[in-house]
Design goal:
This protein has three domains: 4-73, Thrombin, subunit H (Beta Barrel); 77-329, Rossmann fold, CATH 3.40.50.12240; 343-427, no CATH class. Helices cover 33% and strands 25% of the residues. The protein has helices at 129-132, 153-163, 178-190, 208-227, 239-252, 266-274, 302-310, 343-365, 372-389, 397-411, 421-427, and strands at 4-5, 8-12, 15-19, 27-33, 36-46, 49-54, 66-73, 75-77, 86-88, 104-106, 123-124, 137-138, 142-147, 168-176, 197-203, 231-237, 278-279, 285-293, 313-318, 321-322, 328-329. Strands 9, 13, 14, 15, 16, 17, 18, 19, 20 and 21 form a ten-stranded mixed beta sheet that branches. Helix 6 (266-274) crosses helix 7 (302-310) and helix 9 (372-389) packs antiparallel against helix 10 (397-411). The radius of gyration is 25 Å and the shape is elongated.
């Protein structure tokens, strides 16, 4: 029988401090207040002084209230009963459905031993040419979407959720505006993807401590499904809100701040979540896509900077499109040689010509005289932006490759592309 304590000695923000003994880090406790019962999690142990985050916030908590430690970390229900459901950051239903208490699993467990991981080798198709053709998403990869406020990163995540060739989608929303939450819910439902999705939503109006639980709950459920053989795609938005919540809690705890006020263990906090991406031998996989907004479009900001050291590339969303020269999938070479034998040729040639187009566009803006080659590049660049780069384009990989050949033939002679003769003979569009 767990002991109940009544000696709350401090309340600071959403953190309360209790004098207790034999308590474990991350252990869950119940706080009994005049308004009911709230859950809290141990975040600091200093001798007998135990600091806990109260998930629902400390409003209404007094020093005379009771605290009962449960002897285990935070747990969440798992299994097929979660599919199609929407929960908050504490795992409480938001969809008016029943609460779930079966098949409970711990959250925040260690990531998989690297020696037990399979080298990523399977592509996840999304129907987005700027991903499928130029920076292929690979199963068990961890990739951030670097963006700034106002860019359509949530729309991009929703589209990937609808179209990605995976078994289960888990969406973890942190600091979402209520309209964004409704957008995700309605979009997935409208396109028939809600039945294979699970949503854990923390809105900007919810207690900040719940924001910290969203990635751990999402990834714990994902791991459980992956061990059962499912291919799981975890979409997290916005990891900057998660890091800001970490900063707020660390300030409350009077920890010595690091770069721009963020806690010194920011890298470890992010890595412990991203490293959950894994392909299990003989089972399923976890792939992570996480939107990360960059304040002031500053890639050296601590959140994107630390993220870049952990992940395997990034998608750089700028001006409403995936920017080809800011984006990188370091694992694309593992899969794009297995798709179609012209995949790498189209990828390399079109990006090289697009870089030349950018140079020609800059010369034109500066008033230089345009050569015939410049004019060809300018025409090519405009077509590329409209028919490949635009996020409105929604076609399968093979059709995107075919369209790439058509665009090249529309703008250049075969010898101007630098593509080897055997490829030209096989794939160059024949004149009618």
């Amino acid at each position: 029988m767990r002991k109940t304590y009544t000696n709350i000695i401090q309340i600071a923000g959403d953190v309360i401090t209790v004098e207790a003994e034999n308590i474990g880090y991350n252990e869950i406790a119940q706080v009994f207040t005049g308004r009911g019962t709230s859950l809290a999690q141990v975040i600091r142990i200093d001798g007998k002084k135990i600091s806990l985050q109260v998930f629902a916030g400390s409003k209404g908590v007094s020093t005379g209230d009771k605290v009962k430690f449960l002897g285990h970390p935070m747990r969440v229900a798992s299994g097929d009963n979660l599919l199609g459901r929407i929960f908050n950051g504490s795992g409480v239903p938001l969809d008016k459905g029943p609460g779930l208490s079966e098949n409970m699993i711990d959250i925040g467990t260690p990531s998989v031993n690297p020696a037990k991981r399979i080298i990523p080798n399977k592509m996840i198709r999304t129907g987005i040419p700027m991903i499928d053709v130029f920076n292929s998403l690979v199963e068990s990869q961890k990739l951030p979407i670097f963006s700034i406020a106002g860019e359509p990163y949530n729309e991009l995540l929703a589209r990937i959720a609808i179209q990605a060739e995976v078994d289960i989608i888990i969406l973890g929303g942190m600091g979402l505006k209520y309209d964004d939450y409704l957008f995700f819910r309605d979009t997935l439902e409208e396109h028939g993807a809600l039945s294979r999705s699970i949503m854990f939503i923390h809105t900007a109006a919810d207690p900040v401590v719940e924001c910290l639980l969203v990635p751990d709950i999402s990834l714990a459920v994902a791991e459980n499904f992956a061990l059962e053989g499912k291919r799981v795609l975890v979409l997290l938005t916005d990891m900057t809100n998660f890091c800001d919540a970490l900063k707020e809690i660390s300030i409350t705890m009077e920890q010595v701040p690091s770069n721009r006020g963020y806690p010194g263990d920011l890298y470890s906090q992010l890595a412990s979540r991203y490293e959950k991406a894994v392909d299990f031998e003989g089972a399923g996989s976890i792939t992570i896509l996480a939107a990360t907004t960059m304040p002031g479009d500053d890639v050296t900001h601590p959140v994107p900077d630390n993220t870049g050291y952990i992940t395997e590339g990034q998608f750089y969303l700028k001006n409403g499109v995936i920017e080809p020269f800011g984006s990188l999938s370091r694992l694309k070479q593992q899969v794009n040689g297995k798709t179609r034998d012209d995949h790498r040729t189209i990828m390399d040639t079109m990006i090289q010509l697009f870089a030349s187009y950018r140079q020609s566009a800059e010369k034109q803006a500066m008033g230089f005289q345009m050569s015939n080659w410049d004019k060809k590049l300018l025409r090519y660049g405009k077509i590329f932006e409209e028919e490949i780069m635009s996020l409105k384009v929604n076609i399968a990989l093979e059709k995107a490759l075919d369209r790439g050949w058509q665009i090249l033939a529309q703008c250049f002679n075969p010898e101007e592309t630098g593509i080897k003769k055997s490829m030209i003979e096989e794939y160059w569009p024949k004149k009618q």
